Amino acid sequence: MAAIGPRGDGAGEAAPLTLADYARSARARLAPAVWDFLEGGAGEERTLAANTEAFDRYWLRPSVLRGASRPDTATEILGRRWDAPLAVAPVAYHTLAHPAGEAATVRGTAAAAAVPVVISTFASRAVEDLTGRGVPVWLQVYCLRDRAVTRGLVERAERAGVEALVLTVDAPHLGRRLRDVRNGFRLPAGVVPANLTGGDGFADPSVHAREEFDPDLDWTVLAWLRSVSPLPIVVKGVLTGADAVLAIEAGADAVVVSNHGGRQLDGVPATLDVLPEIAEAAAGRVPLLLDGGVRRGRDVLTALALGARAVLVGRPVLHGLAAGGPDGVTGVLRILLDELTDAMSLAGVRALADITPDLLRRSGDR
Ligand SMILES: Cc1cc2nc3c(=O)[nH]c(=O)nc-3n(C[C@H](O)[C@H](O)[C@H](O)COP(=O)(O)O)c2cc1C
Ligand SMILES: O=C(O)C(=O)c1ccccc1
């Protein structure tokens, strides 16, 4: 976060070259309280900071003379081809960043690459306006106390053509985000969940979550979700090997190693730092995805070398959206893709299957 300058400093007017450029440009355009909501984490934001810092503790060990001038970034996950090992993480209320919201995100993503967009339970555009537009759409599910509402959301998404469900398991309630408390953050008028029926009182997300989220879920929730929908179930928010095993035993088709971008329990480790433990426990039984702090193409290489099959990117996509609408989203994803292929080529990695732990050296190790 150190690269982010003060508002109105004129940065970001030249064509953005990095995700940090997009972050600066977004910050200059967004109301400060909205920026804080998007950017902030829980507590002292130790986990938020750790997510990005963890990537900087690894160095790459290139192999030379590998004929890797045109690396192949394609992969297959849950039976679908992805152009690159990247997806858009679920982030509530994209209309906070741009009036077209998730519709702009989907359009911008499709222009960059065929990779999934995971829409939040709190997406601010109707799911029917997001599917069938060139990229797979997955639905993130918060399991609410009112299971009929959750079921209705899932059935609606399935009818619309959503291809997988991402069950978030790290949020019995929302973490204590001090920036939002200090700002008295409320959603601006008109920013509402477009796919949830009934009710209002959404304006303070943390109050709403306390009232509506089911805070007492256990692993049987997977069987319940399975009874509601035949779609693949991805469990998001696992941080230990033991929980990854329980997720697999409960029937998860994939697991997202995530600390919710440092927004839930402050003091948990960086996702990158728990990935090896989880990869060992999962032992290849399900694909592992990772999110949190991915800001450069080479970060994708690092995560894959430690056992992820793909990564999800959250805040940077919203930065692109705020900075330039669909074109900004395309720009963010293209930068990540260009940086990834550049790093693969220079590291002698022809295809994702070539990526092994040998590609890395942890700083300080000999
Ligand atoms: C503003 C914001 C809203 C989010 N909303 C959701 C959500 O509705 N559901 C969810 O599972 N995760 C949500 N997340 C967490 C992201 O899916 C993801 O785990 C995290 O942002 C990844 O870290 P990154 O932002 O460093 O890439 C949200 C994150 C942010 C920043
Ligand atoms: O999940 C989140 O991090 C989040 O910020 C959120 C916001 C609104 C509704 C639900 C979750």
UniProtKB/TrEMBL annotation:
Gene3D superfamilies: Aldolase class I. Coiled coil: none annotated. One of its GO terms (molecular function) is oxidoreductase activity. Its cofactor is FMN. Its EC number is 1.-.-.-. Residues 11-365 form the FMN hydroxy acid dehydrogenase domain. Keywords: Flavoprotein, FMN, Oxidoreductase. It is an enzyme of class 1 (oxidoreductase). InterPro entries: Aldolase_TIM (IPR013785), Alpha-hydoxy_acid_DH_FMN (IPR012133), FMN-dep_DH (IPR000262), FMN_HAD (IPR037396), FMN_hydac_DH_AS (IPR008259). Pfam families: FMN_dh. SUPFAM superfamilies: FMN-linked oxidoreductases. Belongs to the FMN-dependent alpha-hydroxy acid dehydrogenase family. PANTHER family: 2-HYDROXYACID OXIDASE 1 (PTHR10578:SF107), S -2-HYDROXY-ACID OXIDASE-RELATED (PTHR10578). This is Alpha-hydroxy acid oxidase. It comes from Actinomadura fibrosa.
